[in-house]
Amino acid sequence: MNAIWKPTLSQQKKYRRNRRLLLLVVIFAVVGFVGYYYFPTSPPPELAKTGAQVQDKQTYPEKPTEPLNQDTASMDNLQHPVPEHILKRTIQPGDNLSTIFDSVKINQTTMFQIVAADESLLALDILRPGNILTFTLDKKNRQLMKMELFIHPAHQIVYQRVDENSFEYKDIILSGTWEPQLLDGEIEGSFYQSALAVGLSEQETGNITYLFKNKLKFSRDLRAGDHFQVVRSLQLLDGKLTGQSHIEAVRFFTRKHHYTAFLFEDGNYYDERGESLARAFQRYPFKGHFRISSPFNLARLHPITKRIAPHKGVDFGMPVGTPVYATGDGIVTRVKNHRYAGKYIEIKHEGRYMTRYMHLSRITVKRGQKIKRGERIALSGNTGRSTGPHLHYEIHIKGRTVNPITAKIPMAVSIPKSKFKLFQQRVSELVSLMEQPVFDLIGT
Ligand SMILES: [Zn+2]
C-alpha cells in the first residue's frame, strides 16, 4: 500500500500510453474478473415486482440499446415503420412533461395519473435532453396504455396502465458488466485541466475534487509535475459502453505527501488506512424525537390510493415547521415542488449516497448549494399528497433506496474491524492495477 511512485518522463508519455492500452486489455480480463468476483459493484438482485427495482435482463427485450435522436429515428422509420399507435419523443432542451404530453395529444388527466405513479420514484422530475419517451396507445380508443422512459441503455422505466385511473411503474436497471480503466496523468495547469486531459469528465473531476475537499487544497497543494491516478469503472451492456461510470480509486502524489481514496462495498471512500474521506452521517434529519408514522416498506398499501405502492422512505410524524437538517455533507441536486411528493430536496453526498426530504413547507437551500452535515435545509410540512404533517426521508445507496433506520451508512469514520481484511484485499487489487509495470512489460 505504501507504494513507491515511479516518476515518468513526459517524453515517454505517448509510448507509455500505447503500451498501456495493450496491457489494459490483458489486465481487464484478469483484474476485471477477479475484482468483480470479490467485489461486485453491481447491486444484489432484488424482487422483480411491480414498483420494485427490476434486475432481469430478460424483462426488457424490446428496447433499443442506443438512444436515437428524432432525425435518425425518422430515417429509421422509413425502413422500419413504427405503428401509428406508438409515439416517440426525444427530450429537447426546454421540454417538460406538459409540453411533451401536449405534443402527443394526451390529456392532463392521464399525465397526472402517470405523475402519481412516479411519486415514489420521481424519475419524471428530471427529464434530460436525450432521454426518450415512448407512448403506446390503445389502437381503438387511443387511450394511453404504456409510457416508457429511456434514460440510458442500462436504465429504463415503464409506466403501465392498471385500470381506468392509474398506472404503476417498473424501474428496469440492468447490471451489465463493469470494466476498470486506469487513467494517469500529471498536473499541468489546474487539476481540472489536467483531469480533463486524461479523459475524466467534468462531473468526475468535480466528484474527485469534492471527495478530497477535507484533505487537499488543490490550488495550494498540487504543483506542476505532481502525479495522479484514477481507476474508474465503465459499464458495458452487450459489449457496448452505456456512458455510466464511477470512480473506484484515486491517488495523488505530491512532492511531500500522497493522498488516496478507495471505494468500498458500502459505497463510501476510504484512504489506504481505512479512514473515511467523508465525515460520518447522522441517522436522523431532525433534532429530538419524532415517532415513525410509516416505516420503509416495499410492499406497502398506499394510504390514499389503497394500491400496493412501495414506501421507499420513512415517515416521521412532526408538526409543520419543524427544522429539517441534512444528514451528511453534500451538494443540493434538486429543489422541486411535486404534485404528490410536495416540496422536496435531494442531496448528493460523497461516496455513492443520496438523500431526499419530502412534503416540506419551506426550503431554505438552493440547487447547487454545498451543505454540511447538520445544516438546516428546510422546515417540515404537509405539502403534496399527504395524510398529515410529516417528513418523508429517503436514503439511496448506489442508486437504490434502503431503509434509513437500518441502512449501513458511514456512521463511524473508519472501516469496521470485521471488514478490514476485505477492505485491504480490495485496496491491493486496485493498487496492483495502478502499479502495473506499464513501463517495461509490453514491448520489451
Ligand atoms: Zn412517506
Structure explained in plain terms:
It is built from eight helices and 22 strands. The protein has helices at residues 13-38, 70-79, 97-103, 108-117, 191-197, 202-211, 218-221, 420-434; strands at residues 53-54, 86-90, 132-137, 144-152, 155-161, 167-173, 177-186, 227-237, 240-253, 258-263, 269-270, 292-294, 314-317, 323-325, 330-338, 342-349, 353-360, 362-363, 370-371, 376-379, 390-397, 400-402. Strands 12, 13, 15, 16, 17, 19, 21 and 22 form an eight-stranded antiparallel β-sheet that branches. The chain is globular, with a radius of gyration of 24 Å. The two termini are 27 Å apart. The relative contact order is 0.13. The model is unreliable at 1-15, 21-74 and 439-444 (pLDDT under 50).
What is the fold's blueprint, element by element?
Blueprint: H1 13-38, E1 53-54, H2 70-79, E2 86-90, H3 97-103, H4 108-117, E3 132-137, E4 144-152, E5 155-161, E6 167-173, E7 177-186, H5 191-197, H6 202-211, H7 218-221, E8 227-237, E9 240-253, E10 258-263, E11 269-270, E12 292-294, E13 314-317, E14 323-325, E15 330-338, E16 342-349, E17 353-360, E18 362-363, E19 370-371, E20 376-379, E21 390-397, E22 400-402, H8 420-434
Parallel strand pairs: 1-6
Antiparallel strand pairs: 2-3, 3-4, 4-5, 5-6, 7-8, 8-9, 9-10, 10-11, 12-13, 13-21, 14-20, 15-16, 15-19, 16-17, 17-21, 18-20, 21-22
The structure holds zinc ion (ZN).
